[in-house]
């Protein structure tokens, strides 16, 4: 074996085997773009979850309001069976102005609906022969698949 060729190979190998260590600026920028897109996706999912959570809360409040007036009707069952709690929804959704117990209950109910579900929310009660249908309407357009006029309806026999 020739001794002169070995040092030349080592020298040649040493000159060409120099590798750059670390990452380039372009690689860092690409990874930051990918991370940013991922974080935007997480933020969008969080926003959608918050909206749907609000929608579910409003639906729960509507159910609570239906059962609230139903309890009031059961405590005043004679008047309720005779239609004293019947309430037709109007554009302004104003509560009756009477002083009877049924009117006071309806005033509190409409006020609670407005407070919990917004001023555009309203209710409707129709009773016939002791069978009552109670509805609460509200704007649920913020939730996924929600409508401008969402409602909960529950029927009961008094």
Order of helices and strands: HHHHEEE
Helix content: 40-55%
Distance between the termini: 111 Å
What can be said about the biggest beta sheet? 3 strands, antiparallel
The total strand number stands at 3
SSE-based structural type: alpha+beta
- Oligomeric composition of the shown chains: single chain
- Give the number of helices: 4
- Give the uncertain stretches in residue-range form: none
Biggest β-sheet: strands ordered side by side in the sheet: 1-2-3
Q: Radius of gyration, Cα only, in angstroms? A: 35 Å
| Inertia-based shape | rod-shaped
Percentage of residues in strands: 5-15%
Structurally, the number of domains stands at 1
Mean pLDDT: 86
Please tell me about this protein's structure.
There is one protein chain. This protein has four helices and three strands; from the N terminus they run ααααβββ. By secondary structure, the chain is of the alpha+beta class. The chain has one domain. A three-stranded antiparallel beta sheet has the order 1-2-3, with helices on one face. α2 (25-75) packs antiparallel against α4. The longest helix has 51 residues, at 25-75. It is rod-shaped, with a radius of gyration of 35 Å. The termini are far apart.
């Amino acid at each position: 074996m020739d001794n002169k060729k070995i040092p030349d190979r080592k020298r040649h190998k040493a000159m060409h085997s120099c590798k750059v260590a670390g990452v380039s600026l372009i690689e860092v920028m690409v990874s930051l773009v990918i991370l940013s897109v991922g974080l935007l996706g997480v933020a969008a999912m969080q926003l959608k979850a918050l909206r749907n959570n609000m929608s579910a809360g409003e639906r729960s409040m509507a159910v609570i309001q239906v059962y609230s007036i139903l309890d009031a009707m059961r405590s005043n069952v004679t008047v309720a069976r005779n239609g004293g709690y019947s309430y037709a929804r109007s554009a302004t959704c104003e509560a009756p102005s009477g002083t009877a117990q049924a009117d006071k209950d309806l005033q509190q109910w409409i006020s609670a609906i407005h407070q919990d579900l917004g001023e555009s929310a309203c209710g409707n009660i129709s009773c016939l022969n002791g069978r009552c249908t109670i509805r609460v309407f509200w704007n649920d357009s913020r939730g996924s698949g929600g409508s401008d006029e969402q409602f909960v309806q529950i029927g009961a026999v008094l």
